[in-house]
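Translate sequence into structure tokens.
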Amino acid sequence: MAKAYLSLGSNLDAEANLRSAIAALRERFGDVALSPIYRTKSVGFDGADFLNAAAIIDTDLDPLALNDWLHALEDAHGRDRSGPRYSDRTLDIDVVLFDDRVLAGPGNLRIPRPELKHAFVLRPLADIAADTIVPGTGRTLAQLWAAHPDRDLALETIAL
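Result follows.
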């Protein structure tokens, strides 16, 4: 079994989509460590606020198979990939870390995920995996968050 660290986000019917996605993760993978859910501003476009969270799962899938499974889950929630890269999303789930692996491809699969630089990805992960070392950095998620420019920004938490 491998440990996968996921970033979850939605800004279209966000509460319902995240609630459903978390239930699907639990049904497929069992126990899911879940961060607080944060309301964050959209990044890269002018859109509605997102709800973002992080999850840690134990998986029997390799990174590519997990990425494919997550894309199918996004698709089941009405994810539209035909528009611009930065746009409204019913559901967005990315594999941010996968054990201590570093991958570049195939396709859009990148581990560690470059979006780890954004507060909406880093903060929730640091909440639930503070001591996890990010491959290639030699630094923990907590250390990366402590050095982040948005570390003092207050973020609203949402209960599902």
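Note: Strands lie at 2-10, 33-34, 37-40, 50-59, 92-98, 103-104, 110-111, 133-134, 139-140, 157-158.
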